Amino acid sequence: MNPRIDPDITIEDLVRDRPSAVAVLRRFGIVCIQCGEPVWGTLREAAAEKGIRDLAEVLSALCEVGGP
Questions:
Q1: H-type helices in the chain, by residue range?
Q2: How far is CA 37 from CA 2, 32, 44, 67, in A?
Q3: Domain ranges, ordered by start, for the chain
Q4: Is the model's pTM score more than 0.85?
């Protein structure tokens, strides 16, 4: 079962359970892998680093992609 996607989901959980989410996050400028090292924290934290305050569009896009 996929975890509920909300702003406080960890990137680690999101990517583990929905690998296709990586492409969605990349569309919004949220890169999950940098220099071969994974970037963790929550979706809210990663979005804030990119200046995204309203996560509605990101969450909607993530909910459209299924699990693995």
A1: 11-17, 21-27, 43-49, 56-64
A2: 24, 9, 20, 23
A3: 11-64
A4: no
